[in-house]
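Sample A.
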Amino acid sequence: MKPSAPFERRKRTLNTALLMILALMLVAIVRSRANVSTDGAIVQQVTIAAPLIHGTAPLTLVTPAGGSAGRPLLVFLHGRGGNQSSELTAQLFRALRRAGAGAPDVVFPFGGEHSYWHDRASGAWGSYVIREIIPYAVAHLHADGRRIAIGGISMGGFGAYDLARLEPRRFCAVAGHSAALWPAAGDTAPGAFDDAADFARHDVIAAARRDRRLYGRAHLWLDGGSADPFHAADAALAASLRIPLHVWPGGHDSQYWNAHWGDYMRFYATSLAHC
């Protein structure tokens, strides 16, 4: 017997609803604990639709202990070969706890193997952070969208300074921790840029030399180990911007970065408090 028209309409409505549910599952939140003590912070592993990088993307969201709506947001970009969970260390969570009420919510996006966080042939990695990651994190965490900081390690440090110069009014604070910078296209690591023209479009040292005020009123930070191979290039950027380069003993490795999460978080919390 042929189904009635009302039955067919109800069936189509049900199918549409099921498709909507399946689509929402792409951004389903899975609460989980890191492999280390979170010091009371809540860690959420999320997958979102990310058409700007041709698909979906995982990201990690961290809410400090006692978190509530209206906290500032820190966007933290991982280094080359890392991922959205690379920085979930005991040192990070301890630093968040010690920052107390001033601690920001944190979003750790996924940046691929070596995207260097800029728009390029493999995807619009910079636009993805600005147009997909930040709006999602602000809405999902109920963060204060007027108080946002951006920072990162190595590749992520470069990405933070590159994105912030293109969006000078968006960020209250910008930080590079052992930022992966080069003085010329011929010095760059394989895969960091598509070609010399791509490097030139994202040469933050040259941009700072042309205009040391290109970051507006944002609070700026640069640091690196005394034995870091990027020391000279980071010093050149710091000199162009007329800001200090914080240097401590160490190299370009997690031992160095984990030793200074407390310093990093104090900078972010203080800068965001005065945003």
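Sample B.
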Amino acid sequence: MMQISVVVPAWNGKNRIGLCLDSLLGQTMKCQIIVVENGSTDGSLEFLKENYPDIELLVHEKNLGFAGGVNAGIRRSIDNGSDFVALFNDDAVADKHWLRNLVETIGQNNRIGIVTCKFMDIDAEHLDSTGDLYTNWGLPYPRGRGESVSDKYDKEVEVFAASGGASLYRVSMLKEIGLFDEDFFAYYEDIDISFRAQLAGWKVYYSPKAIAYHRTGTSGSKIKGFTTYQTMKNLPWLMWKNVPFSKLPSVAPRFKLAYFGFYVSAWQRGQGVVATKGLLVSLLLAPKKLWQRNKIQRTRKVSVEYIWSMMTHDLPPNANELRRLRAKWWRLRGRS
């Protein structure tokens, strides 16, 4: 019989995790729920022990980040014999058929390694993500973010990547490609694992019938400069580890321009110091990431052109300043 686990990484979420767990306990498909308590200081641990005594609880004394937290839960799930592991943010709420619809989609093809859902803002009026995309600028972005909910994304399709906040992963795939890269800590680690899955020949799908609701940006807003630091640290790794060598001459120059723009913008926002720290840590661990790249690319099972075809050949929709710079460059070259 198929066994499914749902891993919930929890950090200082006492005031929100109850709604999250209630929605998982109310799923129409049976699952094991594992909460990874990631060093909270707001009384979350006591709250969980008192109100959810039957849910398996993994306790960490310090915050291991999203990547470290979910990896602990995934390992426990695998030890428990799970065939599939879903990840779910503690600031999200799932429709009662969320898990069942994810499982139905992943069951259609044994090469589907990851399935993501229609992730809406908590107001149910706007989208958070309908799968993530990766551009030839080295920049990922969530498909549909900020758009009003409509039938635009009601078709089940292949996507480049899945949001780690509410997606389902095949255990056999994870055993092949490895778990989340814990150096990322938080942000883009879900794009990284999806990219590695694509390179290894696995598919990532979007299931519009699987619906969940998310309080966007809850964790990042708690720590000043956190998003800036993680972005400056992680974005280069995502490119260096995963983009095939023959495509780096096309992607890397665009990425350098965008990355420099992020760095300048951080100084303008008064976050230059944390941006510099992120840049330096990224450089410090670059040799490790290049070593990881060697293994990832050596075991690639799909063609470079397939990966290129799955990437988006444009800027993210919200990259307005980069669009203006690109337009000026095109005018200088006489291109319309």
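B remarks: The mean pLDDT is 95. The first strand starts at residue 4 and ends at 10.
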